[in-house]
C-alpha cells in the first residue's frame, strides 16, 4: 500500500506542473538543418478548435497508411485521446520571416505548426512511465534531426519527473518508425503483444521502451531482438 501511494504521488506531482518544458531552456528552440523552431507546451483540455483540426489532419496524413483498414476505428480513438485531461503536448512552430514561403503549412494567425508530440504520465507494471502517444512531423521537417531532438526532450522530461521509463506504440508495418526508435536504443517491451503470448495474441503493433533503472528494466524490457534488415535500412 505504501508503494502504491508513493507511485501515485509521483504521477500526481508530474501532472501538477503546468509547463514541463521550462526546466529545459536549451530545448525550447531548434536551429539546425535550415530550421528555426520553437517548442510550446499545451494540454489536451485547452487545445483550441483550429489546433484540434490541424492535429487530426496531420494524424490522418501520416498514420492512415500504416494503419490501413484499421484507420477509421483508430481515428475515433485518437480523437478522444487528443482532448483527454491527462494529455500533454509539445507544439512545434517554425519561425518565419517571409510567410509566403510557408503557404503550404497550417497556421492559426501565428507561426506555422510543423510538428507535435502528445504524451502522458502513467503507471505500467507498477512502474511510473512517460508514454508517448504521438510524435508527428510535417514532411518538410522530417529527416532533419527533429524527431531525435523531441525524443531526447521527452526522456529529459521523464527523468526530471521521476518516471522510470519511456514507452510508446509503433505499427509493425511502419518500418521507418521502427528503424528510427531502434537507433535511439528502444527495444520491444515485455508487455508488447508479441512478447506476452505471440501464439495467441496477434496484433499489428509493438510496444517499445527505454528504461532508466534496474527495476524498470526487469519489468518492462526483454532481450533486444535483431530487427529485419529491411527495417534497419529504413529511416525516419
From TrEMBL:
InterPro entries: Acyl_CoA_acyltransferase, GNAT_dom, NAA40
Molecular-function GO term, any one: protein N-terminal-serine acetyltransferase activity
Span of domain N-acetyltransferase: 86-184
Pfam families found in the cross-reference section: Acetyltransf_1 (PF00583)
GO cellular component, one term: cytoplasm
Gene3D superfamilies noted in UniProt: 3.40.630.30
Reactions mediated catalytically: N-terminal L-seryl-[histone H2A] + acetyl-CoA = N-terminal N(alpha)-acetyl-L-seryl-[histone H2A] + CoA + H(+); N-terminal L-seryl-[histone H4] + acetyl-CoA = N-terminal N(alpha)-acetyl-L-seryl-[histone H4] + CoA + H(+)
This enzyme's EC code(s): 2.3.1.257
Keywords recorded for this protein, A-Z: Acyltransferase, Cytoplasm, Nucleus, Transferase
Subcellular location as annotated: Cytoplasm; Nucleus
Recorded family membership: Belongs to the acetyltransferase family. NAA40 subfamily.
Protein name: N-alpha-acetyltransferase 40
Organism of origin: Selaginella moellendorffii (Spikemoss)
